[in-house]
Write a structure and sequence with these properties.
The protein is mostly helical. It has 19 helices and no strands. The radius of gyration is 26 Å and the shape is globular. It starts with 9 loop residues before the first helix and ends with a helix.
Length: 405
């Protein structure tokens, strides 16, 4: 088995950072900028980018631990990460809920923010749904990405154990779980603790979405070879991306009865909850084109000038994706409330998105600074004070006597 690479990949940081900006735009309620994000022109969206890049990053962060320290300690490292992400999820829900409640109580905004997130079941029946929140059996749609990530993280030790036997077992289990989620409804309940019975499952089914995660994980671990650079592959990828536009663009969907009927009849191929097959193919095509455009080892991302500064800024956001994601999920709802109160015009939309970008950029740099533990660095030595020479007896006298003198 090959060791996972330890150095950062500029392509990983850049595209993960790009995904963070897109995710923020997509989660600001009523944001007109969402009409221009990639999801409006194809089957896949920034979620695939986030999960795929998380798989690559997990291979870098955890793969070497398994290979160097063994399966038991590698699993312990995964459990530590699960513990961290779990509390980030609880924190994101708690802070967002508190902010939405504060906005509603203030009566400064026209929209019912608690109702917009469908959180009244939590308000009106708190005790059982608090248990559900802590056990991940109550998962509102807005707060569903991190629970999905937790389950996928828990699968890493299983996949690492299978890889020691035969890497093909990893791909076999991944495909089996996707099929079971898609056709056998394998998943987790999202409202188990509701007083009324509910069949709703997590919006992002982890047993389906693990496939794109472990695609990125396998590429970075060396279980899958890097795709070859071929002209015909570029043409095929471009064709897949272009041909998907008429079936994904809202203007064509609204104008074409044929497209609407096709999307209804073949929803299983583009379903987001169960990670439809066309979403996977569309994302692979986009990922291949991005890989080609970035150049060998991401060489085209290592540029100078203002473009290089912009790439570096986006990459910095990508390096702190968990913290940035958590912050963006919180501020997106606040920014959406502000945008709604401001009338949602172009100028208000620009201001709200610009503020959101500034916050996640600032958060990324702050978290990076904190991770470097600046308090652990030795303080610079102060220059020694120079004392004017005096009589020998004065210099040898105690300080108190010198002061009195």
């Amino acid at each position: 088995m090959q060791n996972a690479p330890r150095s950062r990949d500029p392509r990983l940081d850049f595209f993960r950072g790009l995904g963070m900006f897109i995710i923020l735009i997509a989660h600001i309620t009523g944001n007109p900028w969402t009409l221009y994000i990639p999801a409006r022109f194809g089957f896949s969206d920034a979620t695939e980018m986030f999960v795929f890049c998380s798989g690559m990053a997990s291979a870098i962060a955890f793969g070497a631990v398994f290979n160097r320290a063994g399966w038991a300690l590698g699993t312990l490292r995964i459990l530590h990460r699960i513990w961290q992400v779990y509390w980030v999820h609880i924190g994101v829900f708690s802070v967002t809920f508190a902010l939405m409640a504060a906005i509603d109580i203030s009566f400064l905004f026209p929209r019912d923010e608690i109702g917009a997130l469908n959180l009244y079941p939590f308000v009106n029946n708190t005790a059982p749904n608090l248990i559900g929140l802590l056990t991940l059996t109550y998962v509102p749609n807005y707060f569903d990405i991190l629970p999905m990530y937790l389950v996928i993280l828990a699968l890493i030790p299983v996949m690492m154990a299978l890889a020691r036997l035969d890497v093909r077992l990893v791909f076999g289990l991944s495909l089996f779980l996707w099929l079971a989620a898609t056709f056998a409804n394998l998943g987790f309940p999202a409202e188990l603790w509701f007083t009324k019975p509910s069949t709703r499952q997590w919006f992002f089914n982890p047993f389906a979405w693990q496939m794109v995660f472990f695609t990125g994980f396998s590429l970075m671990m060396g279980w899958l070879p890097a795709p070859p650079l071929r002209r015909w592959l570029v043409i095929v990828a471009l064709a897949l991306v272009v041909l998907s536009v008429p079936f994904a663009w809202y203007k064509i969907i609204g104008a074409s009865e044929f497209v609407r009927a096709w999307r209804k009849d073949w929803v299983i191929l583009i379903d987001k909850t169960h990670f439809g097959a066309f979403r996977y193919l569309h994302f692979l095509a986009l990922a291949y084109l991005a890989w080609v455009l970035a150049g060998p080892g991401g060489a085209r991302l290592r540029t100078e000038g203002r473009l290089g500064q912009l790439i570096g800024l986006i990459s910095k956001v990508g390096q702190q994706s968990l913290a940035v994601f958590a912050i963006s999920m919180v501020i997106a709802r606040v920014l959406g409330a502000v945008l709604n109160a401001a009338g949602g015009g172009p100028l208000a939309a620009f201001a709200v998105n610009a503020i959101g970008f500034a916050i996640i950029i600032g958060a990324a740099y702050l978290v990076a600074h904190i991770k470097h533990q600046p308090w652990a660095k030795p303080a610079p030595k102060a220059p020694e004070a120079r004392v004017a020479p005096g009589p020998p007896e004065a210099a040898s006298a105690p300080l108190a006597e010198q002061v009195r003198a």
